[in-house]
Amino acid sequence: MNIKTTTAILALGLLGAQGVAAQSTQKFTATKANEFGLTYSLPVTMLDVSIEAERIDRTPGEFYNYSRKYLGLDPVMVSSTDWSLKSVTVNPRGEAVSDDDSRYLIKFKSGTSPFIMLTPEGLPLSINFEADFTPETAPYSVPEAVEPELSILKSPEARQAMTEDMLKAQSTAKRAELAAARIFEIRQSRSDIISGQADNMPADGNAMQLVLDNLAKQEAALTAMFTGTEIHSTVVKTIPVRPDGDSEESTRTMTVARLSAVDGITDVSDLSGEPITLTINVIERGEMPVNEKGETLRFPKNGVAYRIPGRAQIIASYRGSELFNAEMEIAQLGIVYGLDPTIFTDRKAPASLLFYPSTGGIRELSTAK
Questions:
Q1: Sequence-distant (≥ 6) Cβ neighbours of residue 326 within 8 angstroms
Q2: Which of 65, 88, 103, 318 has the maximum number of C-beta atoms within 10 A of its C-beta?
Q3: What residue ranges do the domains of the chain occupy?
Q4: Is pTM, for the whole model, over 0.90?
Q5: How wide is the angle at C-alpha 39 spanned by C-alphas 35 and 44, nearest 5°?
Q6: pLDDT (tens digit per residue) in 202-256
Q7: Closest Cα partner for 114 from 351, 307, 354?
């Protein structure tokens, strides 16, 4: 692969997260001032658990006692708030750590000038390839929160539906009677327009649709005065989880949050809610490479450290049902190995390296022919 092709591939990879503005990337070059050494940290993999819960607020209408009498419909009898779990999504993300065990120094040959690009958090992005940092596209889309919709009873059509007689009526029973009569009047008006028998027909098809939509909303508002309202909204909360790479357990299940039917997404310690669990099943752990004789290779002198990650099956569950199930690479389940630093200072064919920011693994390694 020639250097132009390599550069194009790397650029496409870096620009994969569309719609996200590039952030400030740090560039460090090996020079005499730093004794031709470059320092960086390898990331740990965090799991962002995004929980989507739906809230339903039910409120009785003013005429709920007359709903069955006039409309034959069962109304909302008491105010209530209910929560239900809609989805759980898990996405891997690299996070910088400050401990010395995660920091590595590369010593290059004097007289050369290889460079490293770091993300704003200080994670390795690339070596010998210049690029702006764009966050990795999350492999699994996270739903957006939905704000509560406006109650139909607060809409302009609700005010239009109120007749003068309804506003003057002194008793709830009389207002309910007039409201029911108005509902049937609206239905008759809509039927006359659709059949072409209305005294004042709309001028054209667009005008007709506007009138029909307005009448439908007036009817919905009046009906809600009997049956009550049901307002839907959703909340999305993301909880970071750091998998444990030191444990020898092959399976670990933890509670990451709880869902209360009254209070929604709550903390793990709030036992009023039912648990939302995350299970991490280790599929494989990263191993040191071996030579043709099966002997474990040693870390190269002044090697360019990278991660050989492990893999795990990630399962999110609620009430015994799986809501998410996927395999992911986890840095903590792997090992750190290194590349010979001389490949990056070869005067004829210097290597270029692109990292996976979520694991510190090799995304692309290439050299010019």
A1: 90, 139, 140, 313, 314
A2: 88
A3: 54-85+147-232
A4: no
A5: 170
A6: 888 899 999 999 999 999 999 999 999 999 999 999 999 999 887 778 999 999 9
A7: 351
